[in-house]
Amino acid sequence: MRTACCPGTYDPVTNGHLDIVARASKCFDRVIVAVLINPAKQPMFTLEERLAMLKEATVGMASVEIDAFSGLLVDYARRREVTAIVKGLRAVSDFDYELQMAQMNYRLAGVDTMFMTTNPTWSYLSSSLVKDVARHGGDVTGLVPDFVVTRLRERTAQPPA
Question: Which pTM was predicted?
Answer without folding.
Answer: 0.92
